[in-house]
Each structure stands twice: as structure tokens, then as C-alpha cells.
Amino acid sequence: MILPTIRQTFLVAATFGAALEAGSCRDAASKLGPGPTEARANAVQLFSALEARFGPLEFDSALSAARLKIARSALVPSRIFRDSSIWTSDSGRARVLDITGVPLPGGSYRLAIDGNSPPFNPPATYHRRLELRDIGRGVYEWRARDELAVGPIRGSDLGAAITAIFMALEGGGGTLRTEQREILARTSAALGRLYTLDTLAATPNPDGATEVFVVATMHPRRLATVLPHYAKYLNKYVSPLTYSLSLLDADEQRWGEATLRDRRFTFRFRVAGGNLAPMSAPPRRIPATLRVRMSLTAKALIFRVGFRDLLGDVTLQRDSNRSGFTATFRREPDWILPLLTERMLRAPLRRPFMDNGAELTFAISDSAGAATLATRAYRLSVQESSILRFLGKLGSSAISDFRAGAEREADQFTGEMWEAMGADVRDMIRDPD
Predict the structure, then answer these.
(1) Total-model pTM
(2) d(CA 209, CA 218)
(3) How far apart are CA 309 and CA 180, in angstroms?
């Protein structure tokens, strides 16, 4: 319901955690290619693509209008299904919107409605296909696929860098905070405008694994003078947010957890031999299938809304040319909703978890002679009802506030973060003698 809040907050939070980890090891950056020259070039293109796509954006007028309509009608799609001004194609019960993003001279980035999928060259070229299907009897299904070209870097290079990060965490000991400040000075400064790093600890365990514990606190007031709309938005919608996530295997062993409460993010996991390890069992290889358990509550007007114990089946993809995961949600969580809405529940809130369930995929894939693509895809069905209209109204104020100044400032903050991180990583990679 408050997707802008979740998108911006957890993108930055996850990046912050990754930045802290990367700060513990110069060797990780050198793994981004088969040699220093390739690693540096890959890093430049990767971070330039991320900076461009997730920095300040320009929208053509048709897309600006379509985005607003879709955001307001996401839970009641019948309002827009027959609106021909939105879609690039339609066939019977299906509507499709194609969006293309390209970097422009001067450092700007433009998103526009375009029915022609672009060639993914140069890096930062982006394509989004959004599909809406009328299943019948008030049920609609959303499908989306986002693809971003990130240069010639391969999934195996990123995998090697992550392994090096984990290896560094195992041997980091008490030097982690010092290395984080020194090696990632620009990244620390960019993120330090909003976050403080309260704890960064790596503790060796008797079984050979190392427990990693990270705590960071968000301070929206720090941005009040430079990004006032974003600061106000974070304080209003993100500060009251609570969140928890745990990764579990078939034996209910935890493989990591993250929480957010009172503006404080915590991350806890264990590593051994350059890989994740279970939290309370001897180190072993992570299984190909896991389960994710999530809970979230947010403030909407005078209400608190959210869910408890949302369970998803996670399948890891570890092919030679593709790495990522797919999470599928087939079980309805316990909803946290205003008391007056209880009589409106029943089937509508169960619908996304019926049949094949809801699905979310993140992956990076490469192939010879083509740009490497970072991909996100999701599938979600909704059944129109009074409860969804009610929830849509609760979220409309958050969407309006986000679009009215906060969105561009949020993109500015995120783009500057990627720029800083790219510069730091590039400088870590030493040229061959």
C-alpha cells in the first residue's frame, strides 16, 4: 500500500548493508572482472548504470499521466483496464504497457512509453513491461518485468566479489569500522547524511563460522535543509514503519534476519568459508530452497495496517549464466487492519495467494556478446472489493506525498549514493604494475 516508502527505504538500507560489508575488503572489488583492467571497467559501467537508473528521472507527459492512474488504481484495476491512453497494446482480456529508459547527454535519464523494446546498449538502458489481465468476476492479474543493462560484468564476477566480502568479514575482527570509513569514504559520507552506523561487528564462533551483526539508524532530520520533501516523507511514513524478515530452511534453521523498528535497521547472519552459514547449526552449504517469513506494519492516516507471518518459498538460481532467486507466496498472512474492516475481509485478501500464488523474482543474467541484465519480475492477482478500495484510499495520501517533491529528492539521494559507491569501488581496484 505504501510501495514508494518500501522501495526507497529498503533499497537504501540494503545498499547500506552491502556498502558496509564491501568496506571490509579491497580484494572484493578486484573480483569484479578477470583482471584489474576489466574489473575497473566493469565497476564503472555497473555503478554508472545504477546511478543513472535510480537517480533523478525525467518522464514524458504520457508516462507521467499513466503512472498516476496506475498508482491510484492498482487495487481496483477495472478503473483503468479500458483506458486506451495508458496501454501500448491490448488483446482481449490483456493490456500491456511498455516503458523504455535511456541515459541522455548531460547526465539526465528519460523514461517514456515506447512499444518497441530497445537494444540493451549502452549500459543503463532499461525496459519495463507491465501487463494487466482480466481473469473474470472482478479478478485481475498484474505482471511486470524490469530489465536494466549493467555492462559486461558477469554473474560469476559478482559471485566472486560476494565470496570475497564474506571471507573478509570472517577475518575482519575489530578493523571493520576503520576500513569502512577509510576505504568507502565517499559512500560513508553520502549515506551518513541520513544514517548512522551504530554497530558493525564480526564475532568468530567456536564452530568456525563468524557471526555478523550490523545496526544502523535513520535520521530524516539530517536531510531537512538539503532534501526537505524527502526528509518530511521519511519522517511521516518510514519512521513509524516496523519490519522483520527471517530466512529459514526445511529444518526451521535460520540463515539470516533483518528488522526495522524505531528507525533502526538490524542485520544478523553468519558466514563460513566465504558463504552464508546457518545461525545456530554447524556450517554447511546453503540449500537451493528456503522459506522467508516476513511481518510489516505501517501507519496510514490514523490507522496501523500491515501483516504478520507472511510465508514464501524461495528458490535460489545458481546457473553458470544466471544468479538470483524467486519467492512464491501461497499462504495468506495474518492481517493487521482497522476493526471496522473485519466484516469486509473474506475472499478478497486471500485471492493473491490462491492458485499459483504471488511471485517475485530478482536475477542477474549474462550471455556471450550481450549486455548483462539485472531483472526484477512479479506476478500478483487482486479481487476487487470494498476492502481493497478502502486500502487504496489509505495509500493514496502516501503516493501523493511521494510524488509531490519527495520522489525526485529520493532519487537524488539514491543516485548520489550509487555515484559515491562507484567512485570508492573504482579506486579500490589497483592498476597492474
Answers:
(1) 0.88
(2) 30
(3) 34
Cell representation of residue 233: 516523507
* Non-local CB neighbours of 305 within 8 Å, separated by 6+ positions: 1, 297, 298, 336, 337, 338, 391, 394
Q: Percentage of the chain with pLDDT > 90?
A: 51
Residue 360's contacts (CB-CB under 8 Å, 6 or more residues apart) are 312, 326, 327, 329, 376, 377, 378
The pLDDT value recorded for residue 133 is 97
- 229 to each of 201, 409, 417, how far by Cα in Å? 34, 7, 18
Contact 168, 273 (CB under 8 A): no
3-state class (DSSP) for residue 89? strand
Q: Are 151 and 51 in contact (CB under 8 A)?
A: no
Q: Judging by DSSP bridges, how do beta strands 264-272 and 275-277 pair with one another?
A: antiparallel
Q: At residue 397, does pLDDT exceed 60?
A: yes
d(CA 297, CA 241): 6
- Residue 25 CB partners (closer than 8 Å, separation 6+): 164, 165, 167, 168, 169, 172, 179
Rounded Cα gap, residues 284 and 332, in angstroms: 31
Provide the 8-state DSSP code for 119.
P
The pLDDT value given to residue 112? 95
Set of cell numbers at residue 399: 503516493
Cell of 242: 516496523
Give me the half-sphere count of Cα atoms (radius 13 Å) on the Cβ side of residue 91.
2
C-alpha cell at 159: 559471485
Helix (H) or strand (E) run with residue 420 in it:
helix 407-428
* Residues 142, 375, 120: CA angle, nearest 5 degrees: 115
Question: Any residues with CB less than 8 A from the CB of 368 and at least 6 apart, and which?
Answer: none
* Structure-block grid coordinates of residue 60: 514524458
Of 56-65, 119-128, 396-405, the poorest mean pLDDT is in 396-405
State the cell numbers at 382.
Answer: 487482486
Task: Read off φ and ψ for residue 193, nearest 5 degrees.
Answer: -65, -20
Is 312:328 a contact under the CB 8 Å cutoff?
yes
| CA-based R_g, the chain, Å | 22
Q: Are the CB atoms for 399 and 392 separated by under 8 Å?
A: no
> Would you say 412 and 44 are in contact if contact means Cβ atoms under 8 Å apart?
no
Percent of the chain clearing pLDDT 70 (strictly above):
84
DSSP label of 354: S
- Residue 114 CA to residue 116 CA, distance in Å, equals 5
Question: For residues 392-424, b (16+ Cβ closer than 10 Å) or e, as one string?
Answer: bebbeebbebbeeebbbbbbebbbbbbbbbbbb
Instruction: Could you list the beta-strand ranges (E) of 150-252.
Output: 195-204, 210-218, 242-248
